């Protein structure tokens, strides 16, 4: 029944904008700069990176390397720098020594192959492919879509069994008709490049890791995932492989399946050398205008990890038909240890529209160490879901729509500005690894759900405790469904808790109850310890309850 209510509410909400400059959120007025545009089910496409095919005879030049060619197959066999120009209907193979470093400069080249990977990098210490400034370069894999595994066939338009760096100030367009566009079994780094990678399956796959340091990257998958890692064995330092790291540049992902799928961690942080951070846009499922009508993917999350999802800098905007941010608990890694199922947000900006279409209902909170019987069953898509811990200590989180907004076994808010609009529970501490808890010690949390129906603004299957921060939560005005609800206690010993609807609270310490009227529809301003907060209620709620350890007035 909840999902039917959600679908009905969403159909009305689809005509409303996600968030634009000066937009008034359903909760508090918030200034945002969201490039995702309006919250509609209209598929989004992007063709901002284009390249003109090369003409003329193909040539390879080198001053310090060694290569041979047999017909239209060119084989590089030694370290050195190789410059490629012109159009080739054939293949580039790198089969150098294990300690050799190979640099391939694309100087206005188009390489097309219909029998194997156009670029097949079999052996070298590492390979660098650089699109030179002012040049357009295209790699076309024109094989038919993969239907069975083959040891002879390369898995991508660029297929590497080496570490691979894609860089340069030029443009590189890669079309992977067989399987993946870029596929390396080891580490992949992208820097400065204007790269558009389109693939039947995964647009960009790094077996050991994927790192984007700068540039403009568009990753398009018509039937699979956008950016993916696979291996979880240990590197030379003993660390578990499988991370996706974004420290700069612009990355836009259109995926039939998951936007980012990390076998280990997903990290957005500040680049230590450049001081930059990344801007990321993700469109999954039917939100992507490139998804094939016959795509058979069953997971279309914005970002999915097997261990820890960590955002400390940058901007990420997500439109997904499944969980926006998702961390699994309990996955066994080849290097040893198991997945922590943790999401950390300590900085940056996160904005999302999340929706699970009827007929493709996802597991949500069911997956976890408690098994199918020990976890809360969630039919729908969560904006942020961690099987174990969700920690928000900084940054801005703006959830415009979701089935459940924040869901984890243990939810800790110690900082940041968080705005949640959900069709079921806005915040939900579910059963799992330990006793469910919502813990608030700082920050600003603003939660909006319907004023009627079987929904809760904040719902803990264990306890809710608050020692600081400002929380505004809305919901129905009944014991069965309310603005705040817990199977155990709801307690506040510090901070400010404003309840629009039903709530049963135990207040202690210096906390006082304040008589305010903020529950009617329309705009309201409340002053908390000298700071003004302005918010708009889209509907009327049953009553206002306010508890605070500092002065509050309206």
Structural features, described:
Helix content is 3%, strand content 48%. It has 2 helices and 46 strands. The strands form 3 sheets. The chain has a 16-stranded parallel beta barrel with strand order 6-8-11-14-17-20-23-26-31-27-24-21-18-15-12-9. It has a 3-stranded antiparallel beta sheet with strand order 44-43-46, with no helix packed on it. The protein is elongated. It starts with a helix and ends with a strand.
Q: State mean pLDDT (0 to 100 scale).
A: 88
- Major sheet attributes: 16 strands, parallel, barrel
The best one-word shape is elongated
In helices, the fraction of residues equals under 10%
Mind telling me the C-alpha Rg? Answer: 25 Å
Instruction: Tell me the number of helical segments per DSSP (H or I, 4 or more residues long).
Output: 2
Low-confidence stretches: 1-40, 358-379
Main β-sheet, spatial strand arrangement: 6-8-11-14-17-20-23-26-31-27-24-21-18-15-12-9
Number of strands: 46
Give the CA-CA distance, first to last residue.
37 Å
Strand content: over 45%
Seen as an oligomer or otherwise, the chain set is single chain
């Amino acid at each position: 029944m909840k999902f039917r209510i959600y679908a009905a509410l969403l159909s009305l909400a689809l005509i409303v904008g996600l968030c634009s400059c000066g937009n008034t959120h359903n909760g508090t007025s918030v200034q945002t700069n969201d490039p995702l545009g309006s919250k509609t089910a209209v598929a989004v496409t992007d063709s901002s990176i284009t390249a003109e095919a090369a003409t003329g005879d193909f040539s390879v030049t080198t001053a310090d390397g060694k290569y041979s060619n047999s017909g239209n197959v060119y084989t590089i066999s030694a370290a050195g720098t190789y410059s490629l120009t012109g159009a080739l209907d054939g293949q580039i193979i790198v089969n150098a020594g294990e300690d050799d470093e190979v640099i391939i400069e694309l100087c206005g080249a188009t390489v097309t192959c219909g029998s194997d990977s156009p670029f097949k990098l079999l052996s070298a210490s590492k390979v660098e492919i650089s699109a030179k400034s002012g040049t357009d370069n295209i790699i076309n894999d024109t094989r038919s879509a993969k239907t069975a595994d083959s040891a002879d066939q390369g898995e991508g338009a660029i297929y590497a069994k080496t570490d691979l760096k894609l860089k340069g100030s030029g443009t590189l367009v890669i079309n992977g008709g067989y399987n993946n566009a870029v596929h390396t079994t080891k580490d992949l780094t992208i820097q400065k490049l204007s790269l558009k990678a389109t693939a039947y399956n995964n647009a960009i796959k790094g077996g050991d890791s994927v790192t984007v340091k700068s540039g403009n990257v568009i990753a398009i998958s018509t039937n699979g995932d956008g950016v993916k890692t696979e291996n979880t064995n240990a590197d030379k330092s003993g660390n578990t492989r499988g991370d996706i790291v974004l420290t700069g540049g612009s990355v836009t992902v259109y995926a039939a399946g998951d936007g980012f799928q990390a076998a280990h961690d997903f990290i957005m942080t500040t680049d230590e050398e450049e001081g930059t951070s990344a801007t990321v846009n993700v469109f999954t499922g039917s939100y992507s205008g490139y998804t094939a009508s016959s795509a058979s993917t069953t997971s279309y999350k914005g970002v999915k990890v097997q261990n820890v999802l960590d955002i400390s800098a940058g901007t990420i905007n997500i439109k997904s038909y499944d969980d926006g941010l998702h961390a699994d608990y309990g996955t066994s890694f080849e290097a040893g240890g198991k997945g922590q199922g943790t999401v950390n947000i300590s900085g940056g900006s996160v904005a999302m529209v999340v929706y699970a279409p009827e007929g493709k209902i996802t597991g949500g909170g069911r997956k976890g160490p408690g098994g199918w019987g020990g976890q809360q069953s969630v039919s729908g898509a969560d904006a942020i879901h961690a099987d174990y811990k969700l920690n928000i200590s900084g940054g801005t989180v703006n959830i415009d729509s979701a089935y459940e907004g924040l869901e984890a076994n243990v939810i800790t808010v110690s900082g940041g500005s968080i705005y949640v609009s959900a069709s079921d529970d806005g915040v939900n501490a579910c059963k799992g690894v330990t006793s469910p808890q919502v813990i608030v010690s700082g920050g600003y949390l603003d939660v909006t759900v319907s004023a009627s129906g079987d929904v809760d603004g904040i719902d803990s299957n264990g306890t809710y405790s608050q020692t600081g921060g400002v929380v505004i939560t809305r919901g129905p005005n009944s014991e069965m469904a309310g603005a705040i609800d817990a199977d155990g206690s709801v307690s506040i010993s510090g901070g400010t808790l404003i309840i629009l609807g039903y709530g049963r609270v135990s207040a202690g310490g210096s906390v006082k109850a304040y008589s305010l009227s903020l529950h009617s529809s329309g705009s309201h301003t409340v002053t908390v310890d000298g700071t003004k907060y302005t918010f708009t209620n889209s509907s009327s709620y049953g009553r206002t309850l306010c508890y605070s350890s500092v002065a509050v007035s309206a």
